[in-house]
Each structure stands twice: as structure tokens, then as C-alpha cells.
Amino acid sequence: MRLSNRALKLIIFLVGVPLYLLNCTDSTKINWYDSIIKQPVSAGKESLTDKFKTDIRQWNLIGPGDADQVTSLSILENGTIILGTGIGGLYHSFDQGESWQAMNNGIKNYDITTPVLQDSLNPEILYVGTRGGLYTSRDAGNSWHNKRNGLPEKERYKLSGSIGGITIDPFDNRILFLGLGYRPSSDGTRTVKKIKWSKYIFKSNDRGESWKKIIAFPDNTKVYQLIHSSTERDVLYAATSRGIYMGTNGGTLWRKIFNKGTLNILLFPDNDAKILAACGKDGVYITDNRGKTWEAKNTGLSFRRHPSGPDRYSALAIDPGNTSRLYALNSTWGLYGGLYVSEDQGNYWKRLTSSLPESWLKTSRRMNAVAISPNNPEIIFLGSSRYVYRSLDGGKSWEQLISKRIGKGWSHRGLNVFGHTRKVAVDPANPDIIYIGTVDHGIVKSEDGGKSWDKIGGDLKFGDNIWDIDICRADSKIVYIAASDFKGNYCMSVSRDRGVSWKSLCEKYNKRLKIYKALVNPDNCEEVFFTTDRGVMKSTNYGKTWFSSSKGLPDAPVYAITFYTGNPETIYAGSKKGLYKSHDSGLTWSGVKTDTGTIVRSVLVSRKDPRVIFIGVDRARKNQGGIFRSKNGGLTWVRVLEVNKLVSGLAQLPLDPNIIYASSNDLNYHDESQGSGVFRSADHGLTWESMNRGLPVLRAWNISTGESAPGRVFLSSNGSGAYVIEDPGIK
User: Fold this and answer.
1) Nearest-CA neighbor of 719 among 44, 15, 63, 49?
2) Cβ(702)–Cβ(663) under 8 Å?
3) How far apart are CA 730 and CA 726, in angstroms?
4) What share of the chain is helix, strand, coil (3-state, %, to 5)?
5) pTM for this predicted structure
């Protein structure tokens, strides 16, 4: 039985973990790249103010654009490109990468571990693997559903169903095979590395609705890829941490055909007894007799060490019109990472990505995914840490697809995964000046109300990760940031010229103290605090010297700090051990009675009535997360909102103090870790409603407002960048 041309194209399209790329050019099809090649990039001249006129009731993305970690790339039958990310879920593009939109409706774990697979007979049916299990769509990705019947049960406090590989039987599209594992380009976090994996391959006969397990391996094994033969109905392969296994007899019988740990395999379309294997630090191997003998094909490839690990070959692809032309990805942070090409079936390789364009971010050589156009093999897409790239000439030149030029700055293309965005801060005297602080990618600034952005902080000694930003109300040129470098050194820094230049303030205290929040006295820019994992530090001279301000506080992380409205002598601090209050500007503290075991992540003292206090709490023991409200200065508390995660941010609208926003976050250590997004109260915190329209990711980190933009609310998210909304209740 032979596959249809349509089915063969499907195999070509799914290249993030490339399957067998076949020559199926169809001259009757419209080349869907023509339109984008011939049209210029949009000028993007619409300002935030203009956009709010039409999008007033939803969150609007701001920022310069960022891909963070592109984990997979797929091209669907209609030309739609889908990319998976490590913390932001799925995005698709209908114009070959010029613009992007999220497609996460129903997805509850945003770490995408496999390419999206498309049913060859019904293109509306899609499949994707995540760190939290398998998701299927019956409407071309408009909505997704987690399938668990027969797969490991959902866990609340750990990961149970990380998907390493999925394949569809090309002879019967009802049959799927699935293996547990993690994406080939990464070993994963400590949480992933704790997983015991499985001896099983799972098989479905009903398009993923239910599964049965089959013993495939003698020991627990991490699966990186599954691939089905296109010519033999009964043969499929598994690339695993223990080698390559071949399955027969409907996937019920398995035997090892290669002993080296293998991250990716490729079957040659003209001879699928010939297999190419990407074996991480061991490079690339080939067999032409279905694994009986193997030969290394490493001439021209790089094999060097890097502080974060060695050169690591993790993905393969093939020119659909010329099977002598092969591609290999080196997924490393080192100098020689990137895409390599061989014109002679792997006998010699040369690097194609020695020079890549930049936008506001420095280029990363850490390449994770590749996709080759089935209609024009000169067109190549690459997904890396930070960037998506496209080449129109077979890799001779490249263009980046995350940002576009707006005047002298940069604006996003709809893709702004942007690491973990921790804080959006608006200048209290000028609403056009906005700062965004991120973990991984530093700090950026806009001087035109969010229309365009530039990276600042080039002179920051410890500026890789920005944990908080606070601007002095008395003199908004003075900006404090809490930051750290990649080595784990934390530092407060200050700018006296709105971020043009910075001075480190951490020479005289322990830089290993983990910093959470910064707080500057709104009326006295010399007085500044920062919270740590061991209490609170304070300065009264612009940070020149610091002293501990923790008397009465527990030896525990302090996650939040805020002034009592109208009286900076009174301060509240939220800690892992509850809520604390100081009446003497932080010299001494006393506990405020709350429920036993309350972990306070955020604090808000109402500007309408300072006796009204709100705390956002984390899930602890048997208690859910949520918001507690006190109307008598903390003597008694009432829970006004319950969420099953943590409430990490609270903010009050300056224009109408009855309106309060709360952000709900979650940590990606368990199967469903999407968070609950944003909540809004219009009655001073008595009742709450979800406010998530326009948000692709519901892990909302921090909410902020500003005196200079009294009707606007800014959101920093954990996986999809920064957002702004004009509150719908403001006329």
C-alpha cells in the first residue's frame, strides 16, 4: 500500500523532530511563500492610544518581541507555521512568520515538547505533546483537550505525563503511538530530571481518545522521538536515551538496533532502511541496513565543551527534492551551535549560521528546531533561544522574525514570550516612559507610550535578570531595580537619569541574598528597601550603605513590601511566615494575625481607606491560594477570592480606588500549571471577576498602575511578556 501525496506532505511538514521528508512538490499548488516575499513588513505605526480605541476591553501586548525558547516547528497542509515554546505554549503564523498569534485555548501546561502533528485525512485534527501530557484539537487548534484515558494520571504536585514523541500510523490515521520523555534539545529542569520515565510505549486505536500500554524497553527510558515507516505498515522506531528501538507487530514487539543514546532520527524517503541518527555529544550516525551496522558521519561538525554543556546534535532534516542534502542542529550555547548542512549525505558538513541578524537581543546559538519548506527547499525556518529565523536562499542569509523596526526602536510581531516578565513600571510623571523588567533578558524601555522599545542597562554589572523596578514619585528620574546575574549574584542598582546610566549598590552587603522586591519612599528618594530570602534591607542614603531592617521578622523569604497609605513610616511586609507590620520605617516589625500557615505573596493597602488591607496568598497545606481582605487594619480577615494557585500581584486604580486588580500565577512543576490569570473587582474588593481576554498565557505575575496613567493597568506575565489595558469602567 502506498501513501497518498497528501499524506506524504504531512510527513514533510512536521519537522521540529523531523520525520522523513519526501519529494512531493505539486506545481498545481499555490506557493504560499510568494505573498510574503513580495510584500513589505507592516510599518506598525499604530500607537497604544489609537489601539485602545478599538481594543479597550482586552489586554494588549507591549514590548519589543522575544521567542525565549522555540522548542518545535511544524508546517501544516495549508502553509500555517506553528511553533512551540518552552514557557509560552503554541503560536501560529499565517504569513510565514511576519506576525504571530497564540493558540493556547485549553492548554494547561505551556511547555511544548513535540511538534504539532496533523491528521493526513482530516487537517482539522491536530496533536501536540507538552510537559503536562497530550493535547488534541478537532478544530485546527482553536481549542485543545488533554487526553488521559490510559495514560499516566494527572498529578497535582509533580509531573507525570511529559510527552517525548508522537507518531501517526500513515496507513491508518486512527492509530497513534506515544512515548514519555522530553524534547531533544534540552535535558530539562531539575523537576524534569526527577521523572522516572517508563518502560512503555502507548498505542491508541481511536485518534488519541484512549490508550493502552505496551512494554517496549527493559528499563525506564526517556523517549525523544517516535517515527513510523512510510513504506512498511508494521515498522516504527523510537529514539531514546538508551538507543534506537524498532517496533513491529503493531508496535507490540520491540528490539534495540543502536546502542548510543539518540535524540532524533530521520528515515530516507527513497530507502527507509537507511536511517540518520542525531546522538547528542556523539554527533551523527548513519545505517543503510536498518541498524545492523552504523557509521559515524561527523566530518566538519563541531565537538567542543561549553560551561553549560558540550556541543549536542539534537535534530535532523532533509531536502525533500534532494536526499543528498541533509541538515543537523547543534543545540548548544557554545560558539559553534546552529545549523549545519551536508551536500553528500553526511560525508562532510559545513555551518550555515555563523552570522545571524539581531534585533534588541543578542543572538543565541542555541538552536532547537528546524523546518524546511516542502514547496521550496531554499526556504528554511529555525527556532532558537530568543529568535525565530527565516532564510530564503538555502541558509546563505537569514532574517529574524521576532521584532520589527519602529523608528529607532523595536516592536513585537505578536510573539513576546519574553522569559519571565517580572515588572512593568510607568514613570509617575510621564506616561510615555515605561520600563519592562525580565528574567533572562534584562530591562527595556519605551519613551513613546509603548509603541517602540530599546534595551537599556548595558552598563549594569548584575543586569541579566530584573526582579523588580520602583520609581521615586518625588523625582521620577531616579529608578531603582533589583537584579541578578546568571551566576546567582543579586544586586540593587540605581539610575538618576531614567535608565541611561546605572550604579550598582551592592558592594557592602552579601550578594548571595536573593532579592524579591524593591521599595522607595515616594516622598524621599534616599530611603529605599529591598526584600530578600532572609528578611529586609534598608538604605537612607540612595543605597550607598545598607543595614538590616528585619528585627521582628522571621528568618524567611519576604515576597512583598508596601507603604501604609499616606504614612511612609508604616510599612507592611508579606513573607513565607505571614504578614508583618512596622510603625517605625522598618526598624522593628510585629506579626499581623492571619490564618496559620499563610504564605503572603502580595500586599495592598487601600488608598481609599487605609484600614482596608488586601493580601494575596499562596496555596499552603490544605488551603487554597487567593485574596483575604481586612477592613479594620488587619485585626480580622475575610477570604474574598479563592484560586487554586497563588495571587502574586495586587494593584489599585488611581482614577477609581474601588477598582482593584489581582494577578494569579503558578509554577511549572506539575501537570496543570496554567494559573488563573487576572481578576478585577469594581467594588473595593468585595467581589471579583476574571479579566483574561487577550492573554495567551494565564500565568500572570505582577499587576501595576501609575499616577501618570490613572486609567491604565499593566501586567507582567510568566511566559507571554507584558500587557496593558485601559480599564473598561473608566469613561
Assistant:
1) 63
2) yes
3) 8
4) 5, 45, 55
5) 0.91
Last residue of a domain, one of 592, 611, 638: 592
Judged against a pLDDT cut of 80, whether residue 547 lies above it is answered with: yes
* pLDDT band at residue 621 using 50, 70 and 90 as cut-offs: low
Q: Give the total number of structural domains in the chain.
A: 2
Name the grid cell of 729.
469602567
Dist CA 693 CA 700 (whole Å): 13
For 342, the 3-state DSSP assignment is strand
Range of the domain at 278: 5-26+67-406
Q: Looking at the chain, how many residues does it have?
A: 731
Whole-angstrom distance, CA of residue 127 vs CA of residue 176: 10
Would you state the pLDDT for residue 7?
42
- Phi-psi group of 211: left, alpha or beta (phi > 0 → left; psi -120 to 50 → alpha; rest → beta): beta
Establish if 397 belongs to a structural domain. Answer: yes
Number of other residues whose CB lies within 10 A of the CB of residue 308? 10
3-state secondary structure of 638: strand
Q: What is the pLDDT, as a whole number, of residue 376?
A: 86
What is residue 56's predicted lDDT score, i.e. its pLDDT?
A: 55
Q: How far is CA 184 from CA 26, 114, 178, 314, in A?
A: 32, 9, 15, 5
At residue 714, φ and ψ (nearest 5 deg) are -115, 140
pLDDT band at 596 (very low <50, low <70, confident <90, very high): low
Q: How far is CA 659 from CA 190, 561, 715, in A?
A: 40, 21, 15
Does residue 450 sit in the same domain as residue 401?
no
Neighbours of 393 (CB within 10 A): 10
Edge-to-edge strand order for the sheet containing 243-248? 223-228, 236-240, 243-248, 253-258
514 found inside a domain? yes
> What DSSP string runs through 153-206?
PP-SSS----EEEEEE-TT-TT-EEEEE---TT----HHHHT---BSEEEEESS
Q: How far apart are the first and last CA of the chain?
A: 66
Taking alpha carbons only, the member of 550, 534, 626, 619 closest to residue 587 is: 550
Contact status, residue 667 vs residue 87, Cβ threshold 8 Å? no
- DSSP letter (8 states) at residue 611: T
Angle 229-232-236 (CA atoms, 0-180°, nearest 5)?
Answer: 40
Residue 440 Rama label (left phi>0; alpha psi -120 to 50; beta): left
pLDDT of residue 329: 97
Domain edge (last residue) among 540, 566, 592 = 592
Please list, in sequence order, all residues whose beta carbon lies within 8 angstroms of the beta carbon of residue 325, skipping any fewer than 6 positions away: 318, 319, 341, 342, 343, 377
DSSP-derived secondary structure letter, 702: E
Nearest-CA neighbor of 707 among 409, 433, 430? 430
Q: Give yes or no for a contact between 520 and 531, defined as CB atoms under 8 angstroms apart.
A: no
For strands 322-330 and 313-319, give the pairing: antiparallel
pLDDT tens per residue across span 206-228: 999 999 999 999 999 999 999 99
Residue 400 lies in a domain: yes
CB-CB neighbours of 4 under 10 Å: 12
